[in-house]
Amino acid sequence: MAHLVVTGAAGFIGSNFVHWLCSEHPDREVVVVDKLTYAGNLGNLEPIKDRIRFVRADIADAEAMAEVLRGADGIINFAAESHVDRSLEAAAPFLHSNVVGVQVILDLVKELEVPRFLQISTDEVYGSAPEGTRFNEEDRLNPSSPYAASKAAADHLVQAAVHTWTVPALITRASNNYGPYQFPEKLLPLMITNIMEEKPLPVYGDGMQKREWLHVHDHCTAVWAVWQRGEIGRIYNLGTGDEVANLELIKTLLAVMDASEELITFVTDRPGHDRRYALDISRLTTELGWQQQITLEEGLQATIEWYRDNRPWWESIKSGQYREYYERMYGRRGPAQQ
Ligand code: NAD
Ligand code: DAU
Questions:
Q1: Fewer CB in a 10 Å sphere around the end CB: N or C, the chain?
Q2: Sheet with 52-56: strands ordered across
Q3: CATH architecture of 4-175+216-239+277-292+321-330
Q4: Over the stretch 73-131, which tens digit does the pLDDT of each residue have?
Q5: Which ligand is nearest to the CA of 246?
Q6: Is 205 in the pocket of ligand 2 (CB under 6 A)?
Q7: Residue ranges around ligand 1 (CB below 6 Å)
């Protein structure tokens, strides 16, 4: 069987996806491509490093990508700059990875006749959802941050390539993920690890912004449902309807972890902060028969336990030591790269 290329899989969702794939479909040959930015951590792939081939490359590097895509039976692109706050400070890396990188993949998928390409996008492309509404896949894109705008640009490029060249591509747009291996700059791992360290919990603005939470394991099964049964050219929203205000979520964590609400610290709001994300996922559930397996309550409990059991993983990231450690252990170019 030909190999499947999974990009960005040294990051949070991509690494969970490759773990899931190796355990559920052990026959699949997997090539992981990752540039190893600050968010890419080879430790995330450590337990399965003998099962995959790792190539350190930038998805915007056409030559390197042509090498891995030749003979592949598909590519799933998780690679991206993913943190909204960073995009407010410097947008250029977001345009490079999230826009130029995706066009490079599209050109190669067309040229090398790769049979299938799944672009992993986000609910943020729709912008903030007014109370009482949920966005479906036909809704207008209205991104609020450079991050969201770069993901929306990529979605348009994918649709243009499908329309013009019948490139065999699909798009998923997921809501906020949480679970193991999430970089501790994102809300949930930051709050969980700060609670463990008895540090303040920075709540942006009034904390009443709402997000829809999807456990990363459920994201993986949804991505696979789209990969196997999704229609070329179609977009699929991936979510749960588990909508919670940030402050409520943080108070839940504090209660479960038996810590004091005095750690809550209100700070200046994120500029342009979207108030609410909410997805209509009926296409995923009715057309593809996908079902959520992990409730928010179960998922939060398991995630807290994971961060409790994996202190060295997040402590080394928070202290900035992990890169030096892996470069020492594997050399500068990653474990399995020639
Ligand atoms: P992450 O920041 O944890 O990981 C991103 C990975 O991509 C890192 O390993 C990084 O090294 C790699 N990367 C970045 N630029 C690259 C490039 N030019 N070439 C090769 N590799 C590159 O991100 P994540 O949270 O795992 O998100 C994965 C994807 O899912 C992204 O496309 C993101 O937009 C999307 N998404 C994320 C969420 C969420 O809640 N985290 C929700 C919906 C969609
Ligand atoms: O909705 C999907 C998106 O979810 C993905 O596309 C992004 O890649 C991912 O980063 C995430 O974006 P958010 O901006 O929603 O996630 P973040 O974890 O940064 O913030 C979640 C909410 O918590 C948001 O309302 C901002 C708030 N927040 C965040 C941090 C880091 C705080 O109040 N304090 C914080 O310290």
A1: C
A2: 52-56, 30-34, 4-7, 74-77, 117-122, 169-174, 235-238
A3: 3-Layer(aba) Sandwich (3.40)
A4: 999 999 999 999 999 999 999 999 999 999 999 999 999 999 999 999 999 999 999 99
A5: 2
A6: no
A7: 7-8, 10-14, 34-37, 39-40, 58-60, 78-82, 97, 101, 120, 122, 151, 174, 176-177, 183
278 alpha carbon – ligand 2 mean position (Å): 14
Counting from 1 in the atom list of ligand 1, the atom nearest the Cα of 79 is 7
H/E run at residue 67:
helix 62-69
Q: In the chain, helix, strand, coil percent, each to 5? A: 45, 15, 40
Residue (of 294, 219, 178) closest to 18 by Cα position: 219
| CA–CA dist 141, 235 (Å, integer) | 13
Q: Do 129 and 118 contact (CB within 8 A), yes or no?
A: no
Residues with catalytic function: 123-124, 147
Residue from 18, 31, 37, 76 to probe ligand 1 pocket by mutation (most atoms less than 8 Å from CB)? 37
103-120: b (≥16 Cβ within 10 Å) or e: bbbbbbbbeeebebbbbb
The residues, any chain, with a CB within 8 Å of residue 27's CB and separated by 6 or more, are 1
Q: How far away, in angstroms, is 180 Cα from ligand 1 center?
A: 14
Nearest alpha carbon, ligand 2 atom 35: 187
CA distance 298 to 167: 39
Task: Determine the distance separating the centroid of ligand 1 and the alpha carbon of 13, expressed in angstroms.
Answer: 7
The answer to whether 210 and 148 have CB atoms below 8 angstroms apart is: no
Pocket probe mutation, ligand 2, options 123, 172, 186, 267, max atoms within 8 Å of Cβ? 186
User: Can you read off the two tokens belonging to residue 9?
Assistant: 């899989």
Which two structure tokens, joined as six digits, stand for 101?
Answer: 């990188």
Give residue-wise pLDDT tens across range 281-312: 999 999 999 999 999 999 999 999 999 999 99
